[in-house]
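RECORD CONTENTS
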Amino acid sequence: MINWLHTFQPQPILFSFDFIHIYWYGFFIVLGIISALIVSFKLAQYYRVDSESLFDLSFWLIINGLIGARIYDIFLQLPYYISNPSAVFKVWQGGLAIHGAIIASFITIYFFAKKQKISSWKLISLVVPGLALAQAIGRFGNYFNQELFGLPTSQPWGIPIDLANRPLEYLGNSFFQPTFLYESFGCLLIFILLVSLNIFLIKQGKLNNYYFVLMASLYMVLYSILRFALEFIRIDFSPIFLGLRWPQIISLVFILIFLGFLIFNPHAKTKNDRA
């Protein structure tokens, strides 16, 4: 695996039919979505959420999540998109920010849960294991687009980046940190943890609002810590605020908010009740 990463030259196009191109980026996004749906529909059997409601929610999560991810990325790189307005629609070149997708998804779940009279915490905890798996898979799209890599490295797992995709200050470097792989592995561990916790709670008959808050918050805290740490070695453009990259600021906000929910769980009194 390490030698393959060090020597393989990734290309963005998976295959082509005349003028129609299928991109690796889109392939991994779709594969991640399908994997997330499989996990969520499997868990829904134990969460007492009917498949029709979950199907409706999934539709809006996919649409709003993609829109939110794109809008968020556009605002982060607004000067670039103002100068290149046609790039707004070129999603196959990348530019889907996960923080935008998470925020849009949480808003979608809130209004969907309110309409369906379902606990929003239940729905969030239902989808976050699949979301973590989707992130683990989707990050490989960044690899084939040669984007969102890290600082130069001489380590054997460094990935080659074409001259055209290197920042100006690193034109003399050939190999860079595979931050996509670090985040993918971290998200996979979060997925395994959340699924294991679900299996334990299902066997114990303890799926209730207390643990829904716990699982949703656990995902947000762990992923935010992972993202905060990785931003120290990423070299793609990001607005800087108080000496930190913008994704680090958002990650810190999420960590503080959801640590609060972990410590001061609003459903602590129902810890031993079933949902």
User: Anything to note?
Assistant: Residues 2-270 form one domain. The beta strands are 13-17, 20-23, 159-160, 175-176, 240-241, 244-245. The mean pLDDT is 91. DSSP finds ten helices and six strands in the chain.
